[in-house]
Write a structure and sequence with these properties.
Blueprint: E1 13-19, E2 22-28, H1 34-47, E3 56-61, H2 69-82, E4 86-92, H3 96-109, E5 113-116, H4 119-127
Parallel strand pairs: 2-3, 3-4, 4-5
Antiparallel strand pairs: 1-2
Length: 129
């Protein structure tokens, strides 16, 4: 029996990580399907409010993730709900098409958000906000 390595993905998650002494809410939906990514964004609704007003830094790794209207709606909802607590958000790993979708979310929510190619670039930008 042959194993399809590309079908073995890390489950989408949301957790608080420490990067150079700075806490970041890290949502990892890399390689995920929309229905699998939604619970990770729901988790941000628990973690982000543990920060004070405009104190949370948020990082989303969306490399090779798939998006649909349900996921986009969930992201918009969660971003709006968490705006009070979030100082800045970095998103990495997007294709040209998904970058356009994220730009629509930025417009819709007014969130300070920047797009990056890699997680490391995104982390460096976040800790300087």
């Amino acid at each position: 029996m042959e194993t399809n390595i590309s079908a073995i993905d890390v489950k989408p998650s949301c957790e608080i990580i420490d990067y150079k002494g700075i806490k970041i809410v890290y949502t990892n939906i890399a390689g995920s399907l929309p229905e699998d990514a939604i619970p990770a964004f729901e988790r941000t609704r628990v973690l982000v409010p543990t920060f004070g007003e405009k104190e949370a830094l948020s990082l989303v790794n969306a490399k090779d993730a798939r998006f649909n209207t349900d996921l986009i709606s969930k992201i918009k909802e969660v971003v709006k709900m968490n705006n009070f607590h979030v100082k800045a958000t970095a998103v990495c790993g997007l294709s040209t098409l998904t970058s356009l979708m994220v730009n629509s979310i930025i417009s819709f929510t007014g969130r300070k958000m920047k797009l990056f190619d890699t997680v490391e670039e995104a982390k460096e930008w976040l800790i300087n906000q």
